[in-house]
Amino acid sequence: MDLHGFLKALARRWPTVVVCLVLAIGAALAVTGLSTSVYEARTQLFVATRTSEDTAQMNQGQSFSQARVQSYAEIVTTRQVTAPVVRELGLPTTPEELASRITAVAPLNTVLIDITVKDTVPARAALIANAVAQRFSAVVERLETPKRTIQRSGKRHADDAPPVSPVSLGITQEAVAPTGPVSPRPLLNLAAGVLGGLLLGAGLVALRETLDTTLETSEALGEFIELPGLGTIPYDKNAPRQPLVSADGHSKRAEAFRKLRTNLQFSQVDDPPRIIVVTSSVPGEGKTNTAVNLALSLAEAGVSTCLVDGDLRRPCVASTFGLVQDAGLTTVLIGQARIEDVMQQVGGGLSVLASGPVPPNPTELLASARMQEMLRELADTYEVVIVDTAPLLPVADTVGLASLAQGALLVVRAAKTSREQVRTAAESLERVGVRVLGTVFSVAPLPKGSRYGRYGHYGAYGQYGRYDELPAPRTPASREDAAGPAMTRPSGEK
C-alpha cells in the first residue's frame, strides 16, 4: 500500500483513528491524575585538595581531585551514607529504597558533584539532600584519611599530629524545597497520549487494510479487475420499503440506475446485447435489485423490455412486484404453457416472466436447448431481455445460463465482496465464453450529510436483492451524473 492509498484509507477509516486518539488521551490524563507528585531537590559539592601554595602542587592536587571525583560519586548511594541519614532523620524507609531515590553525577573535567534527591514531599526532599551531602562529605574525608604509622620501636613521638585527609568536600549549593513537581508532567503525558493515539490509529488502519480483502470503493474495484464500471448504486434507507426506484424517481438511487442504463448503451454501441444476465459472486450483493430496477429504467425510457427470473433456487422477482410466481419460466420449459400465457405486465410497460415452480434440477433446465430457444423467442419479441440469475459461486446454474446470453453484468457489493470472489466469478464467466459487459458497484456508501442516512446491505440468500441494516458508511460515494438517453433498438431489428 503506497502513501496515497494509506492516506485514503485514513480518510475512509477516520473513526478508528479518532477512537484510538480519544482512548490514548484519556489514558494519559488518567495516568497524570492517578500518579503521585514527585519533587526533586538538588545540592552541589566541591572537591578540593589540601596542598601548599606551591603552583605545581596545586596543579597536582587539581588533577588528583578530577581523577577521584568520579569514584566519589559512586559512594553517595552506599549504606555508609544512606543508613545514617535514615536514622538521623527518622525516615519511614530503608537505606536501599532511599538509595534508589538519590542520583549523583560528576560532570566531566570538573571537581563538582551534583546530588539529586526525589521525594513526594518538597521540604523533605531538600532536607534529605542536605543530610546526604553532609554525610557523604564525612565519609569521603574519612576514607581518604591515611592511617597512623607506627615506628619499628612501637613508640610514637608525643608531637605526632593526627593524620588529615588530603581532600575536603564543601557544599557550594544547598538544597531548597522545590516549588513544582518533576513528575507527573501533564503536558508531556498529553503529548505522548496524542502521539501514541495517532500511531495506534494509523497502525490499526494499516492492519485492517492489509487484512480486509473487500472492495471499499468503485475506484478500488476498477483498479482490481479490468472490467468497465457501468454503475454505482448508492445505499438508500428507503429501499426496504420501496425496492423499486419508480416509486421515487428523483432519488439518487433512481438516478444511478438511469446512469447504469445509459452507460450500458454507450459501452456496446456497435454490438448492443439483447439478452443480458445479471449475476453476482455470492448471495446478498443486490443482483436481483439491480436486475429489477435496470429493467424498469429501460422500460420507462421506452425500450421494450422483458425481465426473466432465472434464479430457480430462491426466486424473488415476483414477490418484489407482487406478482404470481406459480406459473412462469419453468412452466414454459417443461411445455405446460406458452410464454404469452404466463407473461405478466407491471407498470411502466415492463413484462415480467416469473420463475414458476422451483424444480429439482435447475442447472439442467437453465442450460437446456429449450431454454436457448425460449431466450431467442423473447429476444425476437423484446428489444432487451434482462435475466436475473443465481449467484455464481454457490451453484452452477448461472454458468450454463450465461453461456446462452449475449452479455453479463457482474454485481459487486461495497465492503462485502472479497477480491478473490470477484476474480473467481469473472474467471468462471470468461471460461464459458460469456462477454462480461461490466460491473455494478452496489450499496455504495454516501457522502457525509446525505439524506439517505446510514450504510445498508442486502439480505441473506433467499432475499438477496433486498436491503437490511448495516453500520455507517466508511467511504464517500461520488456524485452521480444525470442519466443519458435510453437504450434503443439496433437498426434493422423489429
TrEMBL record:
Keywords: ATP-binding, Cell inner membrane, Cell membrane, Kinase, Membrane, Nucleotide-binding, Transferase, Transmembrane, Transmembrane helix, Tyrosine-protein kinase
Enzyme Commission no: 2.7.10.2
Record GO terms (molecular function): non-membrane spanning protein tyrosine kinase activity
Cell compartment(s), UniProt: Cell inner membrane
Pfam families, alphabetized: AAA_31, Wzz
Region (Disordered): 469-494
Keyword Cell inner membrane: yes
Primary enzyme class: transferase
InterPro entries registered for this protein in UniProt: AAA_dom, Bact_polysacc_biosynth/exp, LPS_length_determ_N, P-loop_NTPase, Wzc-like_C
Domain Polysaccharide chain length determinant N-terminal span(s) in chain numbering: 1-89
Basic and acidic residues bias spans: 469-482
UniProt-recorded name of the protein: non-specific protein-tyrosine kinase
UniProt source species: Streptomyces lutosisoli
